[in-house]
Amino acid sequence: DADVTQTPRNRITKTGKRIMLECSQTKGHDRMYWYRQDPGLGLRLIYYSFDVKDINKGEISDGYSVSRQAQAKFSLSLESAIPNQTALYFCATSDTQGTLNTGELFFGEGSRLTVL
Amino acid sequence: GEDVEQSLFLSVREGDSSVINCTYTDSSSTYLYWYKQEPGAGLQLLTYIFSNMDMKQDQRLTVLLNKKDKHLSLRIADTQTGDSAIYFCAEYGDSSYKLIFGSGTRLLVRP
Question: Does B99 contact A40 at a Cβ distance shorter than 8 Å?
Answer without folding.
Answer: no
